[in-house]
Amino acid sequence: FAHVIRPAGEGEQARELAARRARLEAEGLLDPRRKRALPRFPRVIGLATSPSGAALHDFLRVSHERFPAARILLAGCQVQGAEAPASVIRAIELLIEDGRAEVIVVARGGGSKADLVAFQDEDLARFAARSPIPLVSAVGHEIDTSLIDLVADAVAPTPSAAALLVLPDGPALRLRVDDTAARLRAGMNRWLVRKKRDLDVIRRRNLPPSVRIARARERAADLRARLERGQASQSGRNALRLRVLRGRLDALSPHAVLSRGYAIVSGRQGIVRHLSQVVEGERVAVAVEGGTFSAEVLALQPGAGSNPPK
Q1: Is this prediction's pTM over 0.70?
Q2: Residue 46: φ, ψ to 5°
Q3: Which helix (H) or strand (E) segment is 33 a member of?
Q4: In the prediction, which pLDDT does 1 show?
Q5: Closest by alpha carbon to 142, among 129, 128, 161, 125?
Q6: Residue spans of beta strands (DSSP E) within the chain
Q7: pLDDT in tens, 223-251
Q8: Residue 127: its pLDDT value, please?
Q9: What does the alpha-carbon distance between residue 192 and residue 194 come to, in Å, rounded to a whole number?
């Protein structure tokens, strides 16, 4: 005879839970890419939980401390027992039909694994996954994972943690608002100062014609005086430069050497620069300071450097 071993007790429950998870995964409901971001500043939060449980008290306490401006819309339901899955489904459905909630939190207090059986329901998980409103699961503790946790858009270990997750940090937000307001006031003050300066410029530009004419005359007189001073200074510099250049030119003039006792001799070939340019008996003109006289070459006496110029 063949013996068949079948799981019983917790083993059977684990097998059934794995089968449910596999079916949900096959439908794509466990795909992380389908999870949606939660609203940053929700005005209305839908809460599906027991109206008499500790979860409601904890959620309300934290929400009041963190962001009292938010409104909590309660949809009461059973969170334990055979009727709990259908009751939670109905609570979520009511919040969806109401339409005011921007995020839905399904919450219950902590407990044993047996207390969380309702949230392992396949129909509940499938309904939560298809909620048109982002849904947060806050059922149980971190060590427990239920099917509704797997399909929810976000998971919190406790109702208090769920309130911290879905609500903005009110005190920190107030500080940011105060800081932003202060920066806006400072920016507005700087803007007003700039506009006042611009207005002063416009007022100065729109002076009466008589004042504008008088100021224009003052500026013209000042410019004329500056121009005359500049011209006089430039003329002085030009005259000094001209004298320097004239002195240099005079120093380079061949006639300047005449005053120092030298003479310039001119023959048939022009100015005599070498003895080879004249012959005995030739008449030459001798220029000295004061005038010119004629002379006759009587004899040639070569000396040092007698080679004719090339």
Answers
A1: no
A2: -85, 130
A3: none
A4: 42
A5: 161
A6: 44-49, 71-76, 103-108, 135-139, 154-155, 264-267, 270-271, 283-288, 291-296
A7: 888 888 888 888 888 888 888 888 777 77
A8: 95
A9: 5
